[in-house]
């Protein structure tokens, strides 16, 4: 059982952790992110193409999502991630990282010394979990 997370900065891998079958951000996910943003900063990390990044940005605007989108480049770029935390003056103890790929997302957070790292089953066509299940799962970890 995972304890509720009390954090100031929440990081999410965007492409597989939050997207439903690569369909992009939708209103339900953005509603959840806006709830989390009431507690702290919400940052979506991506290393996708410029076209995909633009689509993410448009969806953030469309659904009035308060999350920030950071372009990582090549993941796992933990040096870049750590430098961003230092630049923002965000303490690693105050960060929570949600990702679906241990060898990429979670490794980057671990190497950047993030203290709260959560593995989330990503969305694939074969996934037996749906969007609502993911939202409930994330909500259960957070204090909203």
List keywords for this structure.
Rossmann fold; five-stranded parallel sheet; 6 helices; 5 strands
Structure description:
The protein is about 40% helix and about 15% strand. The chain is globular, with a radius of gyration of 14 Å. Helix 4 (about 80-90) packs across helix 5. The chain has a single domain, classed as HAD superfamily/HAD-like (Rossmann fold, 3-Layer(aba) Sandwich). The chain has a 5-stranded parallel β-sheet with strand order 3-2-1-4-5, with helices on both faces. Strand 2 (about 40-45), helix 3 and strand 3 (about 70) form a beta-alpha-beta unit. It has about 140 residues and is of the alpha/beta class. The protein is built from 6 helices and 5 strands, in the order βααβαβαβαβα.
Category from helices, strands and their pairing: alpha/beta
What is the assigned CATH homologous superfamily?
HAD superfamily/HAD-like
Instruction: Figure out the total of helices.
Output: 6
Tell me the fraction of residues in β-strands, as a range: 15-25%
CATH architecture: 3-Layer(aba) Sandwich
Strand order, sheet with most strands: 3-2-1-4-5
What is the radius of gyration?
14 Å
Shape: globular
**CATH fold descriptor:** Rossmann fold
């Amino acid at each position: 059982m995972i304890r509720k997370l009390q954090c100031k900065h929440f990081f999410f891998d965007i492409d597989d952790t939050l997207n439903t079958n690569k369909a992009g951000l939708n209103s339900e996910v953005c509603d959840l992110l806006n709830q989390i943003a009431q507690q702290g900063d919400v940052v979506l990390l991506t290393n996708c193409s410029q076209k995909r990044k633009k689509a993410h940005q448009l969806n953030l605007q469309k659904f009035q999502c308060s999350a920030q989108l950071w372009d990582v480049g090549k993941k796992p770029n933990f040096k870049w991630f750590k430098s961003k935390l230092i630049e923002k003056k965000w303490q690693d103890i105050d960060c929570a990282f949600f990702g679906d790929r241990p060898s990429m997302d979670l490794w980057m957070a671990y190497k950047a010394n993030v203290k709260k790292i959560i593995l989330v089953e990503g969305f694939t066509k074969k996934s037996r979990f749906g969007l609502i299940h993911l939202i409930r799962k994330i909500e259960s970890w957070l204090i909203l």
